[in-house]
Write a structure and sequence with these properties.
Layout: E1 7-12, E2 23-27, E3 53-54, H1 62-69, H2 72-82, H3 88-106, E4 107-108, H4 114-121, H5 127-145, H6 149-186, H7 190-201, H8 214-224, H9 234-243, H10 257-264, H11 280-285, H12 287-304, E5 313-320, E6 331-336, H13 339-359, H14 375-390, E7 396-401, H15 406-409, H16 412-420, H17 426-435, E8 439-443, E9 455-457, H18 468-475, H19 479-482, E10 492-493, E11 496-497, E12 500-503, E13 506-511, H20 514-530, E14 541-545, E15 554-556, E16 559-563, E17 566-569, E18 572-575, H21 581-597, H22 599-602, E19 607-608, H23 611-625, H24 629-632, H25 638-652, H26 660-667, H27 672-688, H28 695-705, H29 712-723, H30 727-733, H31 737-759, H32 764-769, E20 783-784, H33 785-795, H34 802-808, H35 828-834, H36 839-851, H37 858-867, H38 871-898
Parallel strand pairs: 5-8, 14-16
Antiparallel strand pairs: 1-2, 3-4, 5-6, 7-13, 7-14, 8-9, 10-11, 12-13, 15-16, 17-18, 19-20
Helix pairs in contact: 2-3, 2-12, 3-12, 5-6, 6-7, 9-16, 10-12, 14-28, 21-23, 21-25, 23-25, 25-26, 26-31, 27-29, 27-31, 30-31, 33-38, 36-38
Protein name: Reverse transcriptase domain-containing protein
Organism: Anolis carolinensis (Green anole)
Domain Reverse transcriptase: 300-574
Amino acid sequence: MEFIQFFSEVTIKPREDSDHQPLAVVIYSHSDIRPTNPLDVKFIHSMSTLQCKRLKWQSVNLTAIEEYLCNPQVVACGEVIKASSSNSIQVLQTFSVLCSNLKSLLTYTPHNTRKDYIDRTNPWFGQDCKILRQSLRKSMRKAIRYPNQDLHNNMLSLRRSYKKLISQKKSLYNIKIWSELDSALHLKNSVVFWQLVSSKLRQVRFSIDSPIPASQWETFYSDLFNKVGNSNNSSNVKHVTTYYNPDTLPAWPQVEPHDVIDINNTLQNNKAPGEDFLPAELFKNNRDWWAQLLAGLFSHINNSCSIPRGWQMSIIVPIHKNGEKTNPKNYRPISLIDITAKIYSKYLLIKIEEWSNANNILCEEQSGFRQGRSTIDNCFVLQHIIQKYNSRGMSLYTAFIDLSSAFDTICRNTLWEKFAATNIDRRLLILIISLYSDTVLKVRLGPSGALSNEIKTSTGVRQGCILALFLFNFYINDIMKTLSSDNLHGPKVLTRTINILLYADDMVIMAMSPVGLRRSLAKFNLYCELNSLILNKDKSKIMVIGKNRKWYTWTLNGVHLEQTNSYKYLGITFSSSGAWSNHITHSIQRATKAAGSIYKLYHHRYPGTIRPALEVFKKKIMPTLIFGAEIWGHTNLAKIEAFQVKQLRTLLGLSRTTLMAAVRAELGMLPVKAQILMRQFNYWSKVNQMNSSRLPHLCLEDQDQRAHKSSWVVALNNEMAKTGIPLQFLNDLGSRAKQVLMQRTHDIYAQLDLASIGRSSATKFLASHKMNTHLEHYLTIPVPLPLRRIYTRARFEQIGIMMQTGRYCNIPRNERFCVWGDQKVEDIEHFLIDCPAYAELRHRYLHPLLSNFRSPNRNDLLTVLLQGQERSTIIRVSLFTLKAIKKRAHFLKEEESGK
């Protein structure tokens, strides 16, 4: 209402096609509404020029790129870069010009129009829809301007036609999507399948729209990435960065094109590039051309230790996490770096990892982002230590450490000092320092592509840089020396003392006494001060694990640290009691949330099979549900099993009282216990093959030597004994072990489920006809979901007949007579084949099926009707069942009203 002062005239226009009437206003001229108070004027803060947008690779003109690369001038530029005699400065300038010229072929000028939005969100909205919509709008304007019955009728006719066309288009599009989903599964094209799933669910992965002005972002990141760190021994830094002349160091051999090709093959498609807009697909599509060019470029960089300026630039895309959108701390920064910079960083990473592995640089306690290691390894070691000492009646004192912005705050000078103290190749060190010198970033301010001003960064490792994870692991690697004293009372695995476990910046400090843990925390705090690390005292927790645990007061530098009963470490919730009930509860909550996000795949009315929804359930929900089950899978799994069957019942549209074994058998699913057993065996096999110095291997050896009844390996042996295949026998089978155990496990649990179905009185048809536990064929035939569900309910005898409802009223089976009064038991056979009340419906829908059947065995006839080998059979039986149920319900309603 505050804008009404700017309107000179306000009228309501008539509209007959809707009850929403448009409001027409006439505003004063701009000179009349100019604000008198200068504070009313809104300014845009530090807004840079609009940035071009990247074309999707599918929309790129590949012919134009081929022509550009074959251009004589471009070929000449390539020869300059590849020639070993070229000047390094000239090479970098030539490469920069070449990439800049390519940019125009890979970008477009953005147009944020409603038309683009409609085309993007409604792909089914074709040209015929647009033409009919235009005709409808013209007709509506005429009908409003010239009130006439003929014009009004014409408008209504066009509106009905338009709505009908829209409905048809949506239906055809959805049918096409479901068909493509099935086809992608059949062809095992996982990329296309998950793209279709994402588009079908219309999942919004993140939002890049932020109300924060550029000036605030610039201040925030300038403060974050330019903190003054530890400046001790700065002379060493100067020695590394200044006195090492690349010309005095041994030269490296020329980079070979095949080295670049190997790295290019590891690049992932559909990833956003950096400021140069050159995507990974460009280097893969013209692999040989780029391999030779980049090999020459990398050789010049290795010799001169000069880095292209664009490689030091990062584009930060802030993604909102939670909390107030006006607070920059509530955003997760996604860093975009040039793909060529990533390729070269990968080249350096290969060299630095070779040096690290050859010299055993990184400690065994560090598992973060290292090849062949995972979060499960650390959790396995921690759980072994907990079980080992708890079985002796002892408690384990643990401190779960959280660092504030650890990757962003480390002191680079200190990092270079630590490298200089090793035997690392000095040329390799200079190249890494050069890559991290004079780094800057810009913040993308929204979907329009506008960028902030440049922000210099002098601390932390770069987000998005392939080297960052190794650099951080190396930076905190010397913490082991700090926490290596005997008076810290660390737990032991065999003869090895383990005071700390690390997964990048996720740490857990352990001790066998409160005194030992206090000493370790004091030393760790001193280490953080010397290495510019900030302990997050709010998120760091203490937990005492054991039966006779006590509560203590914990302080660090006068700040209270909370002692808790549970803590989520690397995705697994550990409890002070050593039990797993908290973790199972949290897993079910996360899986329930994940199941809700794919609700559209469960409920739709278009023809399709059940396979896409089942595949998403297996690949998305189940991994969430049983994450870390390698560690905790020996506990009571009743709640986990109940959750799986609940979701499968929902998928089939069955009642919550349906037999669990029957639901699993219908969909070809194994019990959760069987799935977890396979995971545990696979992990045991992996640990068994590890190097003898690896911590998980030492824990397994420790369990073998000091086995107690609650140990992990004893529980696994007990489960394996139930399958009749000892662990040692499987170990001797080698690569065939997994397949043998999988088949054995499937056979055992399939037989158990079939036996359970056979004993059930609620599933008479399945008890006599269910011979295997594979996915039933009728579920793989494209049928509209409502018909498929009614067909499934008929197989499970859950269509409301007396055989089902009589069970709830405790009526004996032989007295559950048909409601139509013919004194016959109303089971599924009577309902489909015999009941005279449905004779007309039976003739209309089932006659083609019954007339061609010649066998005198009625059981065979029931098999034909409910096994669903053909689409026509499923549809006819489903329609008959649906109509008969409605007729039965109407009859019962009349009977009730007659009484």
